[in-house]
Amino acid sequence: MSFRNTLMLLGAMVLLGGAPTGCGSERKPVPSAASALPAPAPAAPAPAPADPAKIGANEVGMIPVVMYHSVGDPPARRGGPRYDRRGLNISPETFRRHLQMMHEAGWYPVNMRDALTVRMQVPAGKTPVVLTFDDGRGSQFRYLPDGSIDPDCVVGILEEFNRRHPDWPLRGTFYLNSNRSNPVPFWQRGKEAQKIQYMLAKGFEIGNHSSTHSSMANMSAARLQWEVADCIRYIRRLAPNATMDTFCLPYGAWPRNRALLGVLMEGSEGGTSYRNLAVLNAWGGPAYPPAHRRFDPRAVSRIGVEPGYLEMWIKNLKAGKPMRPYVSDGDPNTVSAPRSLEKWVAANRLEGARLVLYADNAPQPETGKPEKTPKAPRKPRSLSVR
Ligand SMILES: [Zn+2]
After folding, report:
1. Domain assignment present for 41
2. Could you give the number of structural domains in the chain?
3. Is residue 45 part of a domain?
4. Is the pLDDT of residue 59 over 60?
5. Are 141 and 155 a contacting pair, CB within 8 Å?
6. Under the phi-then-psi rule, with left for phi > 0, alpha for psi from -120 to 50, and beta for the rest, what region is 77?
7. How far is the centre of ligand 1, averaged over its atoms, from the C-alpha of 89 (Å)?
8. Distance between alpha carbon 267 and the CA centroid of its chain, in Å?
9. Do residues 280 and 264 touch, judged by C-beta distance below 8 A?
């Protein structure tokens, strides 16, 4: 729901003598004796809630956050291979195949900021997946000379997939930099504002990838704050309603002084205040969900797309290795999990949602610690070509 729609809804509730009682979808008009207006017509009955046990709901399960860079860009260096083995540039055909695989696996796309609340809206039985796209590369959103969207760029491919599969909504988070030391977002000068506004209107999220895309390993607190705030200022000039409240580390490089992660989460510079909901890594496998005790918004893990890697994680999660995936109960007002996983529930982060535990016959020893992934984590510096 847009901010404007929220305002309209709140306004309507005040008119009807009601008052909002919370956030999200839980608002219920409160009857008021003083109200002379007739009671609002009852809403259509909601569909019967799914039985969490029957669908294996597990809202302390892992969430895949998939990391993309280029899809069909020219080789990173002249004469170099077109598609690299680190997954930094994959073919449009590979990306289409990924979408098909994720769809068939019962995954359902949500934006990054929406995967950070226990009240995320995901249909019953589905596993949320966040598709992230770094650096605002040209192949992520390209207009052809006739003004149409290139069917082989990321946005074109996602729109085509959504047309064929309306149950796969247009969601995805694009982490952009300013144009200070990089090309304009998506590389077509003069089109960047139009593109970003178009994406927001379609349901995509624009996130913060720092102003200059420099490694943050040795930056001062002041420089870190400038990097976050300057990117926000740049993007907001192009699209004032961009949320810009999830942050993705350039090269996945953390500040060496871990205490400075707090500065990335919250700060103020040059009159721009910010509060990030999360900081994203560039590796680490599936991410902990917000209702899990190990969830740490300062270090959200992602899955890269080097050949075979996404396939491996689809298979592993399905098999519950090293942990079972998040499976939605379909109700944002409840957090459902098998009783055997109760110890991993972060009771202090339920945001007012009701905890629903159900008996499961085969409790598995889940340590909450992902096993080593078959491939060694990549070195931060090699993660991006620029
Ligand atoms: Zn990057």
Report:
1. no
2. 1
3. no
4. yes
5. yes
6. beta
7. 13
8. 22
9. no
Span 169-204, pLDDT tens digits = 999 999 999 999 999 999 999 999 999 999 999 999
Rounded to the nearest angstrom, the distance between the alpha carbon of 264 and the centre of ligand 1 is 16
> Rounded to the nearest whole angstrom, what is the distance from the C-alpha of residue 176 to the centroid of ligand 1?
8
CA of 377 to the centre of ligand 1 (A): 16
pLDDT in tens, 251-283: 999 999 999 999 999 999 999 999 999 999 999
Count of residues making up the chain: 386
Ligand 1 centroid – CA 258 distance (Å): 20
Q: Report CA(244)–ligand 1 centroid distance (Å).
A: 16
pLDDT tens for 108-139 read 999 999 999 999 999 999 999 999 999 999 99
Determine the distance separating the centroid of ligand 1 and the alpha carbon of 282, expressed in angstroms: 9
- Confirm whether 7 is domain-assigned: no
Distance of CA 89 to the CA centre of its chain: 20
Q: Which domain holds residue 199?
A: 55-383
How far is the centre of ligand 1, averaged over its atoms, from the C-alpha of 133 (Å)?
9
Residue 171 neighbours by CB under 8 Å, 6+ apart: 109, 110, 111, 114, 130, 131, 203, 204, 205
**Domain-embedded: residue 163:** yes
CATH of residue 116: 3.20.20.370
Q: Give one DSSP letter per residue of 284-306, joined into a string.
A: ESSBPPTTBTT--TTSEEEB--S
Burial of 290 (0-12, 13-18, 19+ CB in 10 A): buried
Distance 250 CA to ligand 1 centre (A): 5
The whole-number pLDDT of residue 48 equals 72
Question: What amino acid occupies position 203?
Answer: G
